[in-house]
Write a structure and sequence with these properties.
By secondary structure, the chain is mostly helical. The protein is built from seven helices and two strands; from the N terminus they run H-H-H-E-E-H-H-H-H. It has helices at about 5, 10-15, 15-20, 55-60, 90-95, 100-105, 140-155, and strands at about 20-25, 35-40.
């Protein structure tokens, strides 16, 4: 394992992202919209409509939809019992570009194959999937864009 992977940083040489430069989602039959991974990001939105940060915040704090606060903490003083297993979401918009945020939500295993973060927009190659989610992404393309729009606003 490389030093970058050992400290949790993306190791694009080991992940195949550096070699491919452009990777297709490969999910045309699953109903997922195709996307291209360029370097360490998905630069193009997954949906036609721009994401709504208000809806995105609602998804992030919802304990039945995004489940983000199960592992992450963030600038949500009204939310009790925030997680401490993953990076704090405060400042996410300063640390990562919109495209980088999008790829992390779509499929964080592209950066770290050992991540505990679920792929929110992948349906293939998964294990231990609840029957209600079999063959379906956790979030829709529009919901992904809403969450990305919200996270991009977190600049502290």
């Amino acid at each position: 394992m490389s030093t970058a992977a050992a400290i949790g940083a993306p190791d694009f040489a080991d992940s195949g992202l550096a070699d491919s430069g452009l990777a297709d989602s490969g999910h045309a039959d699953s109903g997922l919209r195709p996307y291209a991974v360029v370097g360490d990001a998905i630069p193009e939105p997954l949906s036609e409509a721009a994401g709504d940060p208000v809806r995105g915040r609602a998804i992030v704090v919802n304990r039945q939809a995004g489940l983000c606060l199960l592992c992450h903490t963030g600038p949500f003083p009204e939310e009790r019992f925030q997680g401490n297993l993953a990076p704090n979401l405060a400042g996410a918009g300063s640390r990562w570009s919109v495209g980088q945020l999008r790829l992390r939500i779509v499929d964080a295993s592209r950066f770290n194959p050992d991540t505990i973060m679920p792929p929110y927009y992948r349906t293939e190659g998964l294990t231990r999937v609840a029957p209600a989610f079999a063959g379906k992404p956790v979030l829709s393309a529009e919901q992904i864009e809403d969450v990305v729009a919200f996270l991009a606003t977190l600049r502290d």
